[in-house]
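Notes, p. 3: input format for complexes.
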Amino acid sequence: MVRYGRELLLNTAYYIGPNGTKGKYLGNKMNCSNCHLKAGTVPYGLNFFSTHARYPQYRGRENKVMTLPERVNNCVERPHNGIPMPLDSKEMVAIVSYMRWLSANVAIGEHVPGDGAAELQYPARAADPKKGAEIYTKHCASCHGANGEGQFNGDSSTYIYPPLWGNFAFECGSSMHRVLKMARFVKANMPHLKASWDKPFLTDVEAIDVSAFVVDDRIHPRPKKEKAESYPNIRNKPIDYDMGPYADPFTEDEHKFGPYQPIIDYHKAHNLPVVF
Ligand code: HEC
Ligand code: HEC
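Output follows (276 residues plus heme C):
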């Protein structure tokens, strides 16, 4: 089951994609490993080093305690724009077994070095999608495509280079749709094969600008889902979450594009959580 779980993370579309051989759950042909790099084993690459040890866990977004299989389904529903897998399906049990195996030496509730996201310094100005467009053309388009569409493999069953926007990319409710969340991932991992956590390629502000360009819904449409039920307690919304209402006076645009430091300072001054 551990081996099958790893296999599922690497070749997700083949097994549970829109034409999946073991069930049709995903709404797109991306694989978990497109984001959780190398089946969740890369430092600062959305890895699963300590994941199993930290669930069940309180989740601000749902305002309840969630189990790991339920958390897996969040990603099936949001970045993969799909429908939840049965919690007791062989595929779900395999994915969780693999995560259990990865976290086997981690104490319950603990983190390990590198299991989070890369740290960023925030620019004093708002993120600039126009500057981001130039960075995109120079450093991203060769793989992800001029229109963010990515590049299919030979039989179009999945991607060599996954899409960043458009109908088949991660949907609006995904964490990757948040500027800072994406920028942290990009800083440590993109451009692919050039950047690594200990040798980033882009500067922090470049990573923020290019992420702002990718997730700018005014120019780049992508699947949308009803998000109304997210964060019933609005105090828990992440700083860069782009859908109000908020527990602070900042606008949706300011939350999405920044400048972020004034929002962080406001939260600290008013005893509001600073969530990313
Ligand atoms: C488009 C990118 C993307 C894809 C594809 C994706 N995820 Fe995620 N996933 C994320 C991001 C970003 C987070 C971190 C969210 C956060 O920090 O709150 C995450 C978090 C998780 C977590 C919680 C990790 C933890 O330590 O708390 C699990 C479990 C997970 N994903 C499983 C999966 C599985 C299984 C798949 C494939 C079915 C998948 N994800 C596909 C982006 C993605
Ligand atoms: C050399 C090709 C290449 C370049 C250049 C590149 N990427 Fe990627 N990118 C990839 C591949 C391949 C993956 C999936 C990794 C995997 O499956 O192991 C990926 C994954 C991603 C993901 C998560 C998956 C998704 O589709 O949402 C994001 C976000 C991303 N890249 C952003 C960028 C940005 C921004 C740039 C420019 C700064 C960039 N990439 C440059 C190849 C590339």
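The longest strand covers residues 57-59.
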